[in-house]
């Protein structure tokens, strides 16, 4: 665009001063727009550089995070807050382990108590069973002794009866013999 265009003056045209003033304003706005555009282009270039730097930093941080996630955490490399959180987690883990050990010990004590109670109950049952067996054996022995005594008594009675019968037979034989002898005479 020309810096100072010459407008011809016409009967029904525009006022030259107004046109020049308008053009000056447009030139100023255009110059301002060009300056803004150049500043924006410069700012875009700066932002592109910053984005590139941030992308590079992001890539480095991602790689560092991957390395940190793959390696065990060392307390020396942590911030104070993370150290505190790690210490709290360690204390909580210790407490959980202690609680688990205590529960295991209680369970072991309970198991031993149940085992002792079972052994005691079995001992009592065994003792009672042995007593019952001994009682039954004593009763059976007494019954056998009674039966044996009864059998002896019957045997003695039978022997006595047999002896009585034998003596009666002998007496009868004697009488018969006497009768026969008397009859023969």
UniProtKB/TrEMBL annotation:
<feature type="coiled-coil region">
    <location>
        <begin position="97"/>
        <end position="161"/>
    </location>
</feature>
<keyword id="KW-0175">Coiled coil</keyword>
<feature type="coiled-coil region">
    <location>
        <begin position="16"/>
        <end position="71"/>
    </location>
</feature>
<protein>
    <recommendedName>
        <fullName>Cellulose-binding protein</fullName>
    </recommendedName>
</protein>
